[in-house]
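User:
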Amino acid sequence: MNKRQKKKQAYKHYIRAIFEGYENMLENPDLEELKFHYLKEQTILSRDAEKKIHFTTKER
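Assistant: Predicted structure:
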């Protein structure tokens, strides 16, 4: 597998993990925060005071 395909596979895995994490947070209201990393990017799923889920993506 070449470098481009590996990078594409890793990104697909990253996106899939974010959505699975979101589903887990919907099912389990006790989860307050989840973090996901891809290269220099970090996505955080967190809850606010009203228990709503927010996505935040930042550069590391």
